[in-house]
Every structure is written in structure tokens, then in C-alpha cells.
Design goal:
Blueprint lengths: L1 E5 L2 H23 L2 E5 L6 H7 L9 E5 L1 E3 L10 H13 L3 E3 L7 H12 L6 E4 L22 E5 L2 H9 L12 E5 L1 H5 L3 E6 L5 H9 L17 E6 L8
Parallel strand pairs: 1-10, 2-3, 2-6, 3-5, 6-9, 9-10
Antiparallel strand pairs: 4-8, 7-8
């Protein structure tokens, strides 16, 4: 794991997008295609804004969706499908974007997605870290062993409070209690991981992930085991690092 500290969120996003774009461009040059994972949330705003500006042949890029609330309508302001369609897919028109469909039986949706992603080797995953240290919606204690690519998870109170605090929901009761999430093992299968984590509210999670022991109680600490992970921080999120 390599950490890169920037002065601002904008600079963080620019650096993360530049690294990711170079990886995608190189994969297209060598293999004729690229396969990526795209995350959502406020932590990804600046990175995605910069990534869509890059000179990438998106018609050769297949994308996978990281997580989604179960039962969430695509018209809801908090829908991750809505977020991705508006902020990314409509801007770049990738070859394919495999969304998580929240409107169908979650067990069947996991089966469908698992069959699809099994056909691909992921070149780069764009992810973040939650205030509780989660990766995707793998809240603590996360399952580090499960091999299925997509799984059904329950969201803990800290995660749900973060979603409300970021303005996606009006009350805690409005935040769904379950989601479909990419598993830890599937994320770690990515050849490269670009992790963008701005804001002081993430500083404790960042410290635990980077400088703490690897533990299921801090799911993002598992990134210490991934050789090609770059974690992009601003001076606020890096504020507690030694």
C-alpha cells in the first residue's frame, strides 16, 4: 500500500484519476480492453469528475458496480445506480456497465452478477473507505474469507449514520438496513486498487487502516496485503497518521 497525501480534495481527485487513467490506457493498449470497478459516495466526487475528462477509449471498458441498497428505487436520490448513471456512465458511455439491480430478489441478483464477473479479470478498482473502516458495504466485522463475488450484507449503525450525515437520507430510519455488496475477496482480486479518502471524518478510519493491525473490525486494513494499492488522502483525512 502506498499513500499519497494532497493539500485538497480537488488535488486528491486529480491524482487518483490520473493514476487510474494511466492503468486503463495501458490495459487497452496491451489487451485491447480494460475492466474496472466503480464506487460511489461523496468521497468519489472529485476523482470521477477528473476521470471522465481523461483521454480513454471508454468503448473498450467494461465496468462493475461496487454496491447498492436492497430495494432502492433508481429514482431515489440515494440510489447508487442513479449516482453512477448521472455522474459517470452518461458522461463516458462505456462498453458495458453491470449495475446491481436493487429491484429484484437479492439472492437471484447476486447469482446473476457472480456469473458475469467470473468471466473477467479486474484491472483497477476505484474504491473508498467508510467512517467505520468498511470497504464497499462490508461493515465490521467483515468476512475476509467468503469467495462469492457479490453478497448480501447488513449495514451497521455507524454506516447508516454516515449515509444520513452525507445528506443522502433525511432520517436514520430512511436508510436501508441491507445491501448487495462486492465481497472483500473479490475487491482484493483486482490487479490495482485506487482508494480515494478525503475529509477529517475519515481520519480515524484511515489511521486504523494504514497503521493498525489487519483485522475484520477494520475491513479496510486488509488493503495492507494488496501490493498494488494506492490510497489517496487529503491533509484532513491524513491528520491522525504518525
Amino acid at each position: 500500500m502506498e499513500k499519497i497525501i494532497s493539500e485538497s480534495r480537488k488535488e486528491l481527485g486529480a491524482k487518483a484519476a490520473s493514476r487510474g487513467a494511466k492503468i486503463i490506457q495501458e490495459c487497452i493498449k496491451i489487451n485491447g480492453n480494460a475492466h474496472i470497478i466503480v464506487a460511489t459516495g461523496t468521497s468519489q466526487f472529485e476523482m470521477l469528475n477528473e476521470l471522465i475528462k481523461k483521454d480513454i477509449d471508454w468503448s473498450k471498458v467494461t465496468c462493475f458496480h461496487l454496491d447498492e441498497y436492497i430495494g432502492m428505487s433508481i429514482d431515489h436520490p440515494a440510489s447508487f445506480r442513479k449516482y453512477l448513471k448521472e455522474r459517470f456512465v452518461s458522461k463516458v458511455s462505456p462498453k458495458e456497465f453491470h449495475y446491481i439491480n436493487a429491484d429484484v430478489k437479492p439472492e437471484k441478483e447476486c447469482e446473476r452478477l457472480n456469473k458475469i464477473i467470473a468471466q473477467y479479470s479486474i484491472d483497477v478498482a476505484f474504491i473508498g473507505i467508510g467512517e467505520n473502516g468498511h470497504l464497499a458495504f462490508n461493515d465490521p466485522p467483515a468476512n475476509f474469507e467468503i469467495e462469492e463475488p457479490y453478497i448480501i450484507v447488513s449495514l451497521d449503525d455507524a454506516c447508516r449514520k454516515q449515509q444520513m450525515g452525507e445528506g443522502w437520507f433525511n432520517t436514520l430510519d430512511d436508510v436501508p438496513q441491507q445491501a448487495i455488496s462486492m465481497s472483500i475477496q473479490q475487491i482484493l482480486k483486482s490487479k490495482n486498487i485506487i482508494c480515494s479518502v478525503p475529509d477529517a471524518r475519515k481520519s480515524n478510519a484511515v489511521r486504523n487502516a494504514i497503521e493498525g493491525e489487519i483485522t475484520a473490525m477494520v475491513p479496510s486494513s486488509i488493503l495492507q496485503k494488496h501490493d498494488n494499492t494506492w490510497i489517496y488522502l487529503d491533509k484532513d483525512s491524513a491528520g491522525l497518521l504518525e
